[in-house]
Write a structure and sequence with these properties.
The protein has about 700 residues and is α+β, with helices and mostly antiparallel strands. It is built from 26 helices and ten strands. It has helices at about 1-10, 50-60, 65-75, 85-105, 115-125, 145-150, 165-170, 180-185, 200-205, 215-245, 350-370, 375-400, 405, 410-415, 420-430, 455-465, 480-490, 495-505, 510-520, 525-540, 550-565, 585-620, 625-640, 645-655, 665-680, 695, and strands at about 175-180, 215, 250-255, 265-270, 270-280, 285-290, 300, 310-315, 325-330, 340. Strands 3, 4, 5, 6, 7, 8, 9 and 10 form an eight-stranded antiparallel sheet that branches. It has a two-stranded antiparallel ribbon with strand order 1-2. The protein is elongated, with a radius of gyration of 35 Å. This is HEAT-INDUCIBLE TRANSCRIPTION REPRESSOR (DUF639)-RELATED. It holds the Pfam family DUF639. Keywords: Membrane, Transmembrane, Transmembrane helix.
């Protein structure tokens, strides 16, 4: 990963520098003419596809392959011992320059099918750069053919033969696919397509249904969806700017609530109103729906430091907390929390998406406020967040995947939620400090300070967005595991008190079963078993074995986990089966909730009464009871002072376990009854409730 970053950042030191572009021809030809013999590379055993990519890159740059190799050899020494690695570095060198030329001279490159095919061929060539491959490299990607992908597509380029992404990925020719590392090396060279921080997560999202191999149909569908979203975002700016009165450099990222069957409801207190919700790179706008027109938008700021809180929440009619389909916004600028509800018949995917993108913008601004960036650095941070949201939308709309896949493409939200995510932000901050850095005077070329350009910001500008009037990074390797763990947590969440109680009972079944067996022994229903258990327990207490009980449990659990870890790797984790309770409607659920609250209230009342009676005994409200308790405490103190702990444990165990013994059952029952009668006669200490003064509270 570190080597990838060095090569990528080195290739982008001059990225987005128009003075380096030698050809401004808008019509770039990505096709290989097949007459590249005169421009052949001197690298031996070059695969045909790699040779084709090099020839096309040279043609785009209007130079020969020999010239590209001469430039490359001037900075890199040939390594005959690592031919594949050296060839791949040369491929990256040529591909980065060709892509830089294309994206700096065209703003509509994502809509060009030849460009999409060319970038995919770059990845295939990186996977198979030479004819002789190491054992772990796949030789299946030496050739590429676009005929199989182009067959069966309609006039818009969408496949007619595949109803879902999964079936499309399975049925396409799986011998022509791209691996994870090839995608991670090539895709970030086009900043609109991928970001270095989240490129592996993007690959996982695109290959969730194709066994971690990227098919061209899926890659092409993603780029077309991304192009469509960018075009839609540019076209949305005009009609809504007059209504929202956006500030300079404010970009509309998404709009919801415009379709009658998918409304957005704003809840404030017990009132709710439908309307249109708009997210920009600075705020959330809500326009209430009036009589045929939208009212003036209410602004919920995300850029200023107002202690904003955005989280998922439950909403319902008249303020009832029934449906988990809302996003709550709270800050010092609003008197009470505001809830945006996204109704849908099944699931809460709309709510989850809007929660993620709103948090992405909020975390981006908090990152800016924490580091006190200058204007260029601030705009670069916002540009990264904007491009991440565009990619998130593209994956979500093109592939219809779960939120656990596409939400990992949001850099700042991901960094806030991951373990050690602060290290990502620290690295990003150090990279942003190098934007437009002044070179060290008098330093050798090899030790010159690295200067970076605001890649994301300039990419947005070239795509037609304006963030100002004039207008590559380390990441953690286990982000997918953390997000996958979070996805499993979301899947096992169930609704309803009775359902959650049923799940808890099944999970605690070993503990409940053990307690039941122990209670059975203590009830002396089987005298022989109870007597054997009593004798063994007394011997264990007298011989001091009780101190080994807890360590033995820990060792047994550790051995069980290690056996599962090393000897049951291939055994899948079976789903935990729980018998669901009978279904209940909303009224029955409310009654169940009311009963649970009543039971909890009763337990709290009983505890308060016990505490008040103890207070009465302590303060001698009933003198005779206080004297008895005082004498009992003195006796217990003497026993604790002079008796050994071992004998005390044995005494307590014998008293508790033999209480239901046939020879003690009658006397024990009589003694417990006298104790209850004595406790009932103890009065509770008085309590006086004082209402808070309204004037003082105001």
């Amino acid at each position: 990963m570190e080597t990838m970053m060095k090569n990528f950042m080195k290739s982008h030191q001059t990225l987005f520098n128009p003075t380096k572009s030698s050809n401004t021809n808008k019509n770039i030809n990505y096709q290989h003419d097949g007459d590249g013999d005169g421009d052949g590379s001197t690298i031996p055993s070059l695969s045909p596809l790699a040779h084709s990519v090099l020839s096309r890159s040279a043609k785009i740059l209007a130079v020969s392959v020999q010239e590209l190799q001469r430039r490359f050899d001037a900075e890199h020494e040939a390594d005959s011992q690592q031919l594949v690695k050296h060839t791949r570095i040369f491929l990256e060198f040529c591909c980065y320059q060709a892509l830089h030329h294309v994206i700096t001279n065209r703003s509509d490159y994502l809509s060009d099918k030849d460009f999409r095919r060319f970038t995919y061929d770059m990845m295939l060539a990186w996977d198979s750069p030479t004819l002789v491959l190491p054992v772990n490299d796949s030789p299946q990607n030496e050739t590429s053919s676009s005929s199989s992908e182009q067959q069966g597509e309609d006039e818009d380029g969408w496949s007619l033969f595949y109803s879902t992404t999964t079936s499309m990925a399975v049925q396409v020719d799986d011998t022509i696919t791209v691996g994870r590392e090839a995608f991670a090396r090539i895709a970030p060279a086009c900043p609109a397509v991928a970001d270095v921080i989240t490129v592996h997560n993007l690959f996982d999202s695109l290959t969730a249904s194709s066994d971690s191999r990227l098919h061209f149909l899926i890659y092409d569908k993603y780029l077309r969806s991304l192009d469509k979203i960018i075009r839609t975002a540019k076209n949305t700016q005009g009609p809504l700017i007059s209504n929202l009165q956006l500030a300079e450099g404010e970009i509309i990222l998404d709009v919801d609530g415009t379709v009658p069957i998918q409304p957005v409801l704003q809840h404030i207190g017990i009132s709710a109103w439908p309307g249109r919700l708009t997210l920009t790179n600075h705020a959330i706008y809500f326009e209430s729906l009036g009589v045929g027109l939208y009212d003036k938008a209410v602004i919920y700021d995300l850029a200023s430091d107002m202690k904003q809180v955005i989280k998922p929440e439950l909403t319902g009619p008249l303020g009832a907390r029934l449906f988990d389909k809302a996003v709550m916004y709270k800050s010092t600028s609003v008197a009470e929390p505001v809830y945006f509800e996204f109704p849908e018949f099944k699931g809460n995917s709309r709510r989850d998406y809007w929660l993620d993108v709103c948090l992405e913008i909020l975390h981006a601004h908090k990152f800016i406020q924490k580091n006190n960036f200058n204007e260029t650095q601030q705009l670069e941070v916002l540009a990264r967040a904007i491009l991440g949201i565009f990619r998130c939308r593209a994956v979500r709309e093109a592939l219809c995947c779960f939120s656990s896949h596409y939400k990992t493409l949001l850099t700042f939200k991901l960094a806030e939620s991951l373990p050690r995510g602060d290290m990502i932000l620290e690295t990003l901050s150090s990279r942003l400090a190098l934007l437009n850095a002044t070179p060290v005077s008098g330093s050798p070329r090899g030790k010159q300070q690295l200067r970076l350009s605001p890649v994301a910001l300039l990419t947005l500008c070239q795509l037609g967005f304006t963030l100002q009037k004039e207008a590559n990074l380390d990441s953690v390797s286990d982000t997918g595991k953390a997000e996958a763990a979070r996805a499993t947590v979301d899947k096992v969440k169930v609704e309803g008190i009775d359902t959650n109680v049923a799940v808890m009972k099944e999970l605690l079944f070993p503990v409940i079963e053990s307690a039941g067996r122990l209670h059975h022994l203590a009830s002396w229903e089987d005298p022989f078993k109870s007597m054997v258990f009593l004798v063994l327990s007394c011997c264990a207490i007298l011989w001091g074995w009780t101190r080994y009980i807890l360590p033995s449990i820990f060792v047994w659990c550790a051995v069980l986990m290690l056996v599962r870890r090393y000897f049951s790797k291939k055994m899948p984790l079976e789903a935990f089966r729980v018998t669901a309770p009978p279904n209940k409607n909303a009224v029955e659920r409310l009654l169940t909730l009311q009963e649970a609250i009543t039971e909890a209230e009763g337990l709290i009342q009983s505890a308060n009464i016990a505490l008040l009676k103890l207070r009465a005994i302590l303060l001698a409200v009933l003198p005779q009871a206080t004297e008895r308790v005082a004498l009992l405490l003195i006796f217990v103190a003497a026993v604790l002072a002079f008796a050994s702990l071992q004998h005390l444990i044995l005494l307590v165990f014998l008293e508790a376990f033999t209480r239901e013994m046939p020879y003690r059952k009658e006397s024990s029952g009589r003694w417990l009854r006298r104790l209850r009668e004595w406790w009932v006669r103890i009065p509770a200490a008085p309590v006086e409730l004082i209402k808070q003064d309204d004037k003082k509270r105001k």
